[in-house]
Amino acid sequence: MKTCFLISNCHLGGLVGGIKFHNPDVRLDACHVWNLATRFGTPEHLLDFIRNFDTVFTMRFGAEFMFGINSDVIAEAAKETVFYPTVNFAGFHPDVVYLFERDSNYCRFVVSPLGPFNSALALYGFRRGYSVERTAGLFRGEVYDQLGYFSGWEEAVAGLLADRDARDFGFESHLLHWLRQGCFMYNPQHPRLGPVLDIAREILRRADLAVLPGHAEGYLASDLVPGPIWPVYPEIAARFGLPGDMVFKPEHGGQAEPHYHRLETFLGKSFEAFGRYDLDDHPCERVEGWLRDGVDV
Amino acid sequence: MGNPYEAKPAHAFWRRAVAQIPPFALDPVVAPPFTIGPADTIATAGSCFAQHISRSLQSQGMRYLVAEAAPAGMAEEQAHANNYGTFSARYGNLYTTRQLVQLFDRAHGAFMPEVPAWRAAGGGVLDPFRPQIQPGGFATEAEMLADRERHLAAVRAMFATLTVFIFTLGLTEGWRHEASGAVVPLAPGVADDGGSRGEFSFVNFGFVDTHADILAFAERLRGVNRAARIILTVSPVPLIATFEDRHVLTSTVYSKSVLHAACIEAQARAPGLAYFPSFEIVTAPINRDRYFEADLRSVNQIGVEHVMRVFQRHFVAGGAGEPAGQALHLSREIDASRHIICDEEILDR
To answer: Are A42 and A52 in contact (CB under 8 A)?
Structure first.
């Protein structure tokens, strides 16, 4: 019976569920990549712990997450390592941008009503001094067309497949299957359950572990639903043959009731968020470009 | 020596042209024989699905011919209720190719069937050739006949003026007036009081009739308008009911197969005639049922947009249909976003 240790980001819950569903005999321990530091305290403790397992399943990550060691160091310590890809896909949500604080090495950023995800159009309206109402008027097909929102799909696909682990895991063919189910992302970072389960099954195969048959999607629920859900705007969704929405759902944790923001509420709260930060210190290359180029929408 | 398929292009292979592309990228058009330019005048007719095409062309600002406009002074709402502008003339739905040929002939005095007027349940007078064109019917038979004359004159003008005629083939099943052979769009008793039911019989046009009708219409149209070109498309909307003694699904597949085969065959024989694959786009397995409403008949707006996007890409000159505007440099943003950690992680930092 194999002992396995899983290191993951927000895919963690779905991966654990999928691995246990398809192979209940695997003795699995798991830790969120960001929780490694608090759980193990020092790199040595972590590496000693890892040596106890037959196989480590890990995404690739840089040194910024824990003690300055990265996933390659983990692999060197492990008896066997399966690197797996994560699903990071911006194709459905071309309006989402990230406002990182300068020189913070991606560690600090503007937190919008939907966490790290900000609307470029909202920021543009805020920077232009537009009202919430006028900014809401920017969310329409003609503006999306002018800003290139309909042309980001290929680049998003290329971005997904740029990761060699993604190619190794057959994301190219999985992508078509996921697409046929509809929008497969809650936001650019959080996949729905289907893609995560596909990764879980492939992890098992790569570790020479059995994948017992069964339709896991019918038994498991995504633990990412309480996270932020960014809508696929209707005009953009229509390009993908999907129904669209304008409902923005912030993260809701524990027993909290979810809130669903319609566009103007979301924009109002986004404006409040922008007002709390020094935006010169949290640059958005895309919106800065629009302002610099005199884009007028 | 290789096999004869080796030199075929990607669109000839199911895997490359259907199975391995994103559903929204399905594009079954190959080398259309002509395109539509800004100088073209477009007229449309056909089944319910043709109304989507009509609305879409008008909203895209193409030169859409309305040969039978509402009378001066008629409010827009009333004009809409009276089906002005639904199609290029006020013929209502033309479901079968036989209706189309007969409309042309009636407009040009080549076919003058004596089909008695129908009566609406409320007493109004209905034109059997377009029984739902006037809500509640006409006040008198004379009024109906006068309106029909105006209508047929508009149809004549339309066929003479259009440069592109888009016809959506909907059904093969229809109802025929036994004495005259005239085909009507609805079974007697559906929109009227059913008083003339005994005068009509059911007919289901097969391939031979449908194919011949298409060629006959194309020849007639070119007879009055040498420059006219025709685009045929098959409605993806299934039959709402069949009068055949068989399952409605079997009848639907039969009807659509006949219409489809007749279009493809006619395209090869008639000059200036193109086939556009609306049916394929909406019903392809790659799209499952996502382009249908809950009734699995009505095509939703998303499906219509896919159809019209492909139409514009291939049939509208310069209408690549591809997005323009600012370049979106998602790659850098995607790279940066890989470093993002989620809210629960922020709490733990």
So the answer is: no
User: Model ipTM?
Assistant: 0.79
3-state secondary structure A7-73: EECCCHHHHHHHHHHHCCCCEEEEEEHHHHHHHHCCHHHHHHHHCCCCEEEECCCCCCCECCECHHH
CA of A278 vs chain B CAs: smallest distance (Å): 20
The encoded tokens of residue B318 equal 């310069």
Q: Which structural domain range is residue B48 located in?
A: 15-347
What whole-number distance in Å separates Cα of residue A24 and Cα of residue B46?
59
Identify from B310, B331, B340 which residue to disrupt to test chain A contact, counting A C-beta atoms within 10 A and taking the largest count: B340
In a domain, B71, yes or no: yes
Residue B10 lies in a domain: no
In a domain, B256, yes or no: yes
pTM for the structure as a whole: 0.86
Q: How many domains are contained in chain B?
A: 1
* Residue numbers in B near A63 (CB within 8 A): none
Q: Is residue B8 part of a domain?
A: no
CB A226 within 8 A of CB A48: no
Q: Are B129 and B175 in contact (CB under 8 A)?
A: no
In angstroms, the CA B204 to CA B210 distance is 10
Q: Is there a contact between B197 and B268 (Cβ–Cβ < 8 Å)? A: no
Cα-Cα-Cα-Cα torsion B162, B164, B170, B176, nearest 10 degrees, comes to 40
Q: Do A148 and B334 touch (CB under 8 A)?
A: no
User: How confident is the model over B60-83, as pLDDT tens digits?
Assistant: 778 999 999 999 999 999 999 999
- Residue B328 at interface with chain A, using a CB cutoff of 8 Å: yes
| Contact call for A34 and B345, based on CB within 8 A | yes
Instruction: Examine the pLDDT at A294 and tell me if it is beyond 70.
Output: yes
Check CB contact under 8 Å for A189 and B333: no
| Nearest-by-Cβ selection for B340 from A162, A189, A242 | A189
